[in-house]
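step: validate -> pass
step: tokenize input -> pass
step: predict -> running
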Amino acid sequence: MKKNFFKLILSAIAPLLLCSCIGLRIDRPKDNTKYHALPPAQTSERAEGLKDASVNVFEVRIPSYMARSQIVYGGKNSSEVFIADSDLWAEPVQNAATRSVVCFLSEMTNSNGIQSSLVSNLGKKPLVLKINILECIGELNGKLNFKAQYSIANSENAISEFFAFSTDAGATCNEYVFAISKAIESLSLDICKKMSDFNKQ
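step: predict -> pass
step: emit ->
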């Protein structure tokens, strides 16, 4: 009798277990997460007189709202900020921005003397570059507003500059990331021009 009871219970439970396993396999939601990285620096812009530039780029500072894994964009004419659900940065934005500045400066100056570290190991005393991104946000299908402050210094002199740039933000997060890269490229070019003037002092 007990054997028949267990057989009856097993025969009733087995289809339920099988269906739940199949259900888990079939109904598992698709992962729509997309990971974005700032694209490799590619620019035709060149800075004159900086071929032997020696520059130590300190870590680029970013606004707190950017310091997250999700891509952040703004609302139209408001202080509202949107955080993308499935569009994520492939690396911390601060690291990406610092790497991007170093790459752009290296290409623009055609110099091997651009590095990012707090302690320079270059042969001669480098220029010290500090960058603080004050604003980097825009509306999808609108404009990306980018503002930064930077300083260039050596052992004798220092200058501080303000930079502002606006460009189309694009319609997708992928285009938005390219717009941010374009802003960093323009910032890098402005830095190159100021470095060239700084070296003439």
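step: describe -> The chain has two domains: 1-30, 34-200.
step: cleanup -> pass
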